[in-house]
Request: fold
Amino acid sequence: MTFTNTQLTLTRTINTSPARLFHLMTDPKMREVWGAPDDDSVLTMESSDLREGGRERHRCGPRDAPDFEIETNWYKIAEPSAACFTETLEIGGERIFTSLVTYHLSGAAKPVDLTVNIAITGFVPDEDMGPEVEAGWNAGLAKLQQLAEAQKEPA
Reply:
């Protein structure tokens, strides 16, 4: 079996504070708001343990059939500047890919420069998961940016 490997680096400049952006990116309820790539999709958190060594499970996919199961393992949480975790996607009990994701937030005030690095290893022979993962993350980050810039900062 041959695994596929893809490296992605996604960047955004978001007009909010690092603390606010970090909260939106890591809070399970907020991730349900921005994590699905479009209005016809859903991301539903089934369990969440947001801490170093913590594990989460969520489902995502089309609103009427969220068949993608994702397990997240948190390795490092350095609020409000960085986080590192893995995500493993399964469909019908078959592992499709695992990705190592790092968040880097730069700046002490508005705006925040966000870099998301994603290293993907695909387990489906001869199928590069990179373009689908990149499209999903880009759509989610666009929604995250809109959410972050539309909401007022807590006092």
